[in-house]
Amino acid sequence: MKLGSSHWILPLLLCCSILSIPTQRLSAQEYVYELGGRLGSSYYMGDAARRAFVTSYASALSLIGRYNSNFRWAWTTELGYRGLSGDTRYADNVFPEGRTARFSSYLLNLRLGGEFNFYPLSDKFRYLGTRSFSPYIGAGLAGSLAWSQSRVIPTPSVYCALGVKYRLSARLSLEAEWQWQHTWSDGLDALQAGRTWLSDPYRLNASWIKNRDAFAVLSLGLTYQLKRRKQGQCD
């Protein structure tokens, strides 16, 4: 990622803000678990990214699982497939020797983290102030396996997410999410033969924040709630 890039600043602030959100009275969710899927688009942010915050799109799909601690808090995991692509001709960088390259790669991504609903979320229990609709914020850790025709690399990462959830019924929920993921690799764009120079085009000293690749995902999902919580059970 470009040394002076500010792509990571806003998402990093959003990740930190989840720790400072005040909580009010919390009550247990009616159902403990949620399982579902998401379909959307992923886009790459790195040395070969376009001159825009939202860049070239590729397909993204995933399976998600969620443990609902209460109306506000949940633990979540996601196993996702993401496609990434870029073209240096449209990048917000000028490369040494006027080099240009196009690339495409793929990721298998596993993430684990927490979510906070801004409103108590449920289609019932209105006397507790619940709502069927709530924006949410999430953050956590992830790991990715990236590959192309010639190379495979693993990389750890951190992520944050913003989204909205809507309870369609007692068991069904619809959700939309934007997820940003910052990796510990600068090689997501350098997996194909002849593109390895993109892993460090300026030969700069990298840190865990700067000169690393990132990607984001916009998605829509549908989940189904499982296992009714025993009466009186509260985490």
Name the shape in a single word: elongated
Q: Helical percent range?
A: under 10%
When the domains are counted, the total is 1
- CATH class, anyone? Mainly Beta
What is the typical, i.e. mean, pLDDT? 78
Strand adjacency order, main sheet: 1-2-3-4-5-6-7-8
Number of strands: 8
Overview of the structural elements:
This protein is 4% helix and 49% strand. With 235 residues, the chain is mainly beta. It has one domain (9-18, 29-228): Porin. The chain has an eight-stranded antiparallel beta barrel.
Keywords:
235 residues; Porin; 8-stranded antiparallel beta barrel; 4% helix; disordered N terminus
Short synopsis of the structure:
This protein is mainly beta. Helices cover 4% and strands 49% of the residues. The chain has one helix at residues 9-17; strands at residues 31-45, 57-68, 73-87, 102-117, 133-147, 152-167, 172-183, 214-228.
What layout of secondary structure does this protein have?
Layout: H1 9-17, E1 31-45, E2 57-68, E3 73-87, E4 102-117, E5 133-147, E6 152-167, E7 172-183, E8 214-228
Antiparallel strand pairs: 1-2, 1-8, 2-3, 3-4, 4-5, 5-6, 6-7, 7-8
